[in-house]
Each structure stands twice: as C-alpha cells, then as structure tokens.
Amino acid sequence: MGGSHHHRIHRPGDSPVHRLPPHCKLAAAAAFAVVVVATPRELFWAFAVYAALLAGVAVAAKVPPGFMARRMVVEIPFVLFAVALPVIGIGERVHVAGLSLSLAGLWAGWNILAKATLGVAASVLLAATTEPRDLLLGARRLRMPALLVQIAMFMLRYMDVILDEMRRMRVARESRGFVARDLRHAPVLARSAGALFIRSYERGERVHLAMLSRGYTGSMPVIREMTASARQWLMAALLPGVALAVLVLGVL
Predict the structure, then answer these.
(1) How far apart, in whole angstroms, are the C-alpha atoms of residue 154 and residue 148?
(2) Strand (E) positions, the chain?
(3) Which of 111 and 152 is assigned the larger pLDDT?
(4) Is residue 218 part of a domain?
(5) Under a CB-based contact definition with an 8 Å cutoff, are residues 170 and 189 in contact?
(6) Same domain, yes or no, for 233 and 187?
(7) Are residues 245 and 129 in the same domain?
(8) What per-residue confidence (pLDDT) applies to 91?
(9) Which of 23, 27, 161, 186 is positioned for an S-S bond with 141, CB 3.0–4.6 A?
(10) 3-state secondary structure of 234
C-alpha cells in the first residue's frame, strides 16, 4: 500500500498514544463507544467521568483543546437536533426559564447530546493520533472486509487528487472573471461539478487499467505488517476498561 498522507485532522506527534498500534486504538475506541451507548442516560456522573477520561487521553497525546473543538464542529447537526427535541417533543411538559418544554424531549436531547459528543471526541482523538493510512491498515488487521478496506484506501489516496482538480477548475473560472456570489451562478457551478465527475471517472478508469497492467489481482500488497505486544493491548484497553468499570458501578 502506498505512502502516507498528512491530513488536517491528523496531528503528528510522538506521544504514548501516537505510538500505540492502530488496530489497538481502533478496538479501544469502538469498545469505549459501546460502553458510552450502553450507559443509562440518568447516570450524569458517569458521562462526566467518561469526558474526564477522554481529556486525560488528549493530555497524554498532547492534543490541544482548540484542535479538538475545531474538529468537533461536525457534531453541530446533532446538537441542533438535540436542542430542538425539548421544544417539539410531546408528553408531559415542564417550565424552564419561562419556556414550556417536553420532559421526554429533554431526556432524549440530553441522551443524544452526551453520547454523540463523547463518541465524536473519541473519534477525533483517534484520527488526531493515527495516520489515515494506518487506520485502514489497522482495520485490515482487525479482519474488516478486505474489499471495504481497499475502497476506503483508494478513496483516501485519490481524494487529494480530486480536491486538487477542483482547485484548478476554480482558479480557471476566477482567471476568467467568474466569482460565485448568488444563485444566478448555480448553473456554472453545476456544469463544473459535472465536468469534475467525468474527469474523475475517466482518471479512475486509467488508474485501474494501469494497475491491471502491473499485475493487480484484487488485493494490494502490504509492505509492513503491524503487530502489538501484550503491554500495548493493555495500555489501549485502559480507556474502555475504566469506562466499563464506571458503568458497572453505576448500574449496580
């Protein structure tokens, strides 16, 4: 598989979290997400402990709070939906600051907001401390379907190529005096999107033919096999393990 790519969501470093094998971190993040989802929404203190655990991982990985906050804007649609639930919800109503809110909506909104925020934060930390290519190699190591891993690998590899093509098309439009300002310019942008699709499709065909001519048989060679020691697995298991202990204490 090809060389590594540096993406803005990844933050290079040499912390203990960065040095963990990617398949260990993937398994730990998935297990942590399962524990968070399984936590009853009434256990407010448990969610606070989970947040503290993630903050500890961020400190160990030397990931600044500002970096985390900027990458978590992807959660905004979930936040808006969670905020709207108490207003549009039905059933018993309670009055908060002069507003009539649905009690069931408040619980549902809190449940979505807390669990989604923790899940997104864990995903951001995983991506910040692991190269995208290594994440896919880790998924392959965890026996994810090889076809899905290859599709994701090709998408990662050629995303930069397509983005660069978009940039060149934008520069060409602007060099001819075109700047999109309102809906009247939508037809031009639509034609550009169509041209980009055709160019990307044709390039993909050429790449596929080139791969076949070089002996591609449906699987990419792996240059470096990833292994993990028992100590590394234990370190990765600390986050979901402590979270599971918190959940058990809260339920009992």
Answers:
(1) 10
(2) 93-96, 99-102
(3) 111
(4) no
(5) no
(6) no
(7) yes
(8) 74
(9) 23
(10) helix
Decide: 62 and 135 in contact? Cβ < 8 Å: no
Q: How many CB atoms lie within 10 A of CB 198?
A: 10
pLDDT-derived band at 1, boundaries 50, 70, 90: very low
The pTM of this model reads 0.78
Residue range 168-176: average pLDDT?
Answer: 87
2 domain-assigned: no
- Determine if residue 30 is left, alpha or beta; phi over 0 gives left, psi from -120 to 50 gives alpha, anything else beta: alpha
Kindly report the backbone phi and psi dihedral angles of residue 130, in degrees, each rounded to the nearest multiple of 5, phi listed first.
-140, 130
Measured distance CA(108)–CA(81) in Å, rounded: 10
> Tens digit of pLDDT for each residue in 37-71?
999 999 999 999 999 999 999 999 999 999 998 88
Is the per-residue pLDDT at 219 higher than 80? no
Domain that holds residue 37: 16-139+227-251
Q: Are residues 39 and 163 in the same domain?
A: no
The CA distance from 200 to 16, in Å, is 39
Could you tell me the two tokens for 187?
Answer: 């037809």
Q: Is 89:105 a contact under the CB 8 Å cutoff?
A: yes
Residues 149 and 179 in one domain: yes
Claim to verify: residue 102 and residue 28 sit in the same structural domain: yes
Residues 152 and 133 in one domain: no
Token pair 């040095």 is found at 19
The total domain count for the chain is 2
Mark whether 160 and 185 lie in a shared domain: yes
Q: Is residue 5 part of a domain?
A: no
| Model confidence at 115: pLDDT above 90 | yes
